[in-house]
Amino acid sequence: MKNFKFLASSIMISSVLAFAAACGNSDDANTNGSNSGQQSSSESGSSEQKLEGEIAIDGSSTVGPIMEAVSEEFAAEHPDVKAPIGISGTGGGFEKFTAGETDISNASRPIKDEEKKVAEENGIEYTEFKIAFDGLSVVVNKENDWVDKLTIEDLAKIWKGEPKKWSDINPEWPDEKIKYFSPGTDSGTYDYFDEVVLGGEPIVKDATLSEDDNVLVKGVANDKNAIGYFGYAYYLENKDQLKVVPIVNSKGEAVEPTNETIEKGTYEPLSRPLFFYVNNKSLKEKPQVYEYVKFALENAGQLAEEVGYVKLPQEQYDEQLKTLEGLK
């Protein structure tokens, strides 16, 4: 396992710096001419092919922080490879991926049958990889001192808009209108919440929807009567200004999302695996894509935990590395 000196709060800044450094190195190489490039190769004494080029990655905002970490560390070893992370949501990412526009699609849910069909129609063959576990976190404002736990049934009523005020749930709670903040409909987090909590029924009409989890964080943090939900990492990053709500599991236990409860499965049913999907053609024809995926699987466990998610058991990463090797 590599020893990474990585801070989650600096992902985006570091990525920009890595990109700038890569561009600078490229400019220097062009300025010095081909002889300089030959000298560099000779000095390294390495027979390994130098990686360069771009990797098109888009999809889930939940998986985004993990893959941003992967791209940052990968750039440190391969500065001539550009692998920026797009955040258009799981659904938006699959739309691009199944059209052949991206090499990798990050997803907080498995690919849907209709998305599989589009991929097949467009001749896109792909492989699914799991990268970490997440605990979908329900949060309220820090000043909310009345909600101490919620059941899945409570969540369903709240998000279908059946109670309009907090006092409609419990007469001892404030007679104030509930404000709702939810991921947008292109988000895999929305899809998961829709399946597990809403049962496919429409979300409350006056909910604020956004593909940007930071918008949701600010919305809940700035309104005492707000409730929202998003990935575990975004809660951890903002726990000083948010209050997480324990969820009653199937055993009747009110459980908060933590690394331990997510990994052990006691924080249920809101724990879930996270994925990324890779175009098989890209794996075979673009060496930088193959090496990027290999690097991700080798280091995702540590990087996922550094940005606030929960690693898979090591044997799952090992098994997926074997799958990857068979696709080369």
TrEMBL record:
Residues 1-20 form the signal peptide. Residues 46-297 form the PBP domain. Gene3D superfamilies: Periplasmic binding protein-like II. InterPro entries: PBP_domain (IPR024370), Phos-bd (IPR011862), Phosphate_ABC_transporter (IPR050811). SUPFAM superfamilies: Periplasmic binding protein-like II. GO terms for cellular component: plasma membrane. The complex is composed of two ATP-binding proteins (PstB), two transmembrane proteins (PstC and PstA) and a solute-binding protein (PstS). Belongs to the PstS family. This is Phosphate-binding protein. It comes from Aeribacillus pallidus. The lineage of its organism: Bacteria, Bacillati, Bacillota, Bacilli, Bacillales.
